[in-house]
Amino acid sequence: MALHILKLAVGVESVSHLAEIQEGRLARSETGELRHMTRNTPNRAAAILDGGSIYWVIKGFIRARQRIVRFDRTVNGEGKPRCAFVLDSGLYTTVPVPHRPFQGWRYFESAQAPSDRGIDITGEDALPMEMADELRSLGLL
Description:
3 helices, alpha+beta, 8-stranded mixed beta sheet, 8 strands
């Protein structure tokens, strides 16, 4: 069973906003790969690379996931070691699940992972996020 990473998308307003940010990063990428930089390298990298994804927490809910392709060790502009999460460009929405804020990233077991909504980002904004959150809080979604 794959192990996943849970990460807070700080400053991101919606899944479509995350997609825009990542498109910009991909356009500026020297390697042509989508990378997310972190300070620490996962100790359980082998389990994550066995089909794991990064799940994004946006506005208090787990809302999207991306497959993790590999981890690269690199350095930042100041020469400090970093870990680059190399991500698949496919960004999939999930059934929203509430999650409290946290710092950094967390390991996330497959049993806890929300189901995919089965669509790529192109269908994400059919129902505005705020409306969906309100309907969900009323038990209607």
